[in-house]
Amino acid sequence: xxxxxxxxSVGDPQYFLSLNALREAxxxxxPAPRDVGRVHLLVARGEGGLRSTPTHVHLTPKNGIxxxxxxxxxxxxxxxxxxxxxxxxLELIANGQPLVLSGDNIVIELDLTAASLPIGTTLKxxxxxxxxxxxxxxxxxxxxxxxxxxxxxxxxxxPTRALNLRGVYMRVTRSGDVKVGDQVRVMKRPDQV
Length: 193
Known about the structure:
This protein is of the alpha+beta class.
């Protein structure tokens, strides 16, 4: 893909994996870090969904990632402020296509399963504080156009839904700076007192 990637970009079917191939490759992945990980990629979706990949951002509770489409629209809820996906899962699904194609704001090396990051989990990314929101991050027709029908089934089937293969939504609760390579640390899970 040499053209700029926007919200209307689609994937190349030659890279789409079958459901069985996705399942097998996922089962072979090493466990992701559960408590401390790293920021791998930051993505802002600007005018027309044009993707930019800043190396650092200043996150705020009001706007999320600066320059991202979410912050430019009036929202009644912050539950969909940031889309976050696990790096190795995205690399598996993208299968050689650019990771920014997914449209997720933050690609991290951290276990995003519901067992590891239940709703309400607080994390520190760089100097910003984030919390996992209750909004489910589901695959959609755009996800299917980018990665194939089997990829959509892979991330959205009920038996594996708690794995959060499509990622999670987070919101910023305390402003701070985040850069690629920064540590992401779980500060508190809801079940911890």
